[in-house]
Amino acid sequence: MIKNLSPSRASQFKTCPKQFKFANIDKIKEPTNEVQAKGTTVHEALEKIFDLPKEERNLENLHNLFRKVWTDVRASDEHVHLFNDQSEEREWGLDGLKLLSNYLTLENPALFDPLERERWVRGSIEDLNLRGILDRMDRNDKGELIIVDYKSGKAPNAKYKEPRFFALKLYALLIKNEIGETPAELKLIYLQNSTIHTMKVDEEMLRNAEKEILEIWNNIKVAFESNNFPTIKNTLCDWCYYKPICPEFNKNAPSTVELENCNEKIDEINETLEAINLVGGLDNLPDNSPLKNTNLDEINKNLEELNITKNKIVKDIEEFLRK
Ligand code: SF4
């Protein structure tokens, strides 16, 4: 059973429990694609621009930051195979720079300092541990808190904007619970088509967001208990990384049962090791602790074997997904 939930994981479960299972229980990691890499690089440039003195927060430096961030990560395992050739990478880079130019048509970073950037927010609601990272938090001229999120994609038509605020509503709720101040407004900055959507925060909105996330959490717990993560066919199936192994689309897809069992045992052993490390070793455990007689050599050996098996299954599934 997972211990924490982020707004994006919750949305993934809501959209398709099977996709949630592939990603979070079977832990079949979706490789970074060029859209994600662009989003991450743009986000980082937008974060770092505020490290510069106000008079240096201009287009040239924003573009330079994008180039620098990309230069630092492009050779990593995650990114090295993203492009077939230099011209593809160049096109991708130009798109990223365009998004940043679009940003400057919406805001002037030389005129303000954010209150916080890339801020961890976490908290408990009943038995749910909710956490995430918000892009930016500002104080406006009236001294009110504003929660800001950058989107590298395109803004929907304003009449469909509401569902896109789900994560930000939860961040507002966590901020309120953490610091005792309710943010006044949520702001989504869409870079693809230079659009800002905002939404005022009120107590009813936060109550509804809390109710919705608890409902999703309860559904996740039921799914875990019954080990039932149904597929929900939706408009995004064609972009789903797991489509080749999804039973909706491939009746002969490789089974993930062995992988699931492996992950469960690995999690169990890691929890035991964490608990022992937390007290500084076996000798510091009380005599009546159920972990006192743990054979560390044996469980470390088990862990090693399980990881070998798991990596082999993941490799086979990843090869299948790449076909
Ligand atoms: S292809 Fe569609 S139904 Fe299958 S896991 Fe992905 S989102 Fe769910």
Characterization of the model:
- The chain is of the alpha/beta class.
- The protein has three domains: 26-111, no CATH class; 116-214, Lambda Exonuclease, Chain A, CATH 3.90.320.10; 254-322.
- The chain contains nine helices and six strands; from the N terminus they run E-H-H-H-H-H-E-E-E-H-E-E-H-H-H.
- It has helices at residues 7-15, 17-24, 34-48, 59-73, 86-106, 166-179, 203-226, 257-278, 296-322, and strands spanning 4-5, 116-125, 128-139, 145-151, 185-190, 195-200.
- Strands 1, 2, 3, 4, 5 and 6 form a six-stranded mixed β-sheet that branches.
- Strand 4 (145-151), helix 6 and strand 5 form a beta-alpha-beta unit.
- Helix 1 (7-15) packs across helix 2 (17-24) and helix 3 (34-48) packs across helix 4.
- The chain is globular.
- The protein starts with a strand and ends with a helix.
- The relative contact order is 0.12.
- Iron/sulfur cluster is lined by residues 16, 18-19, 231-234, 237, 240, 242-243, 246, 248-249.
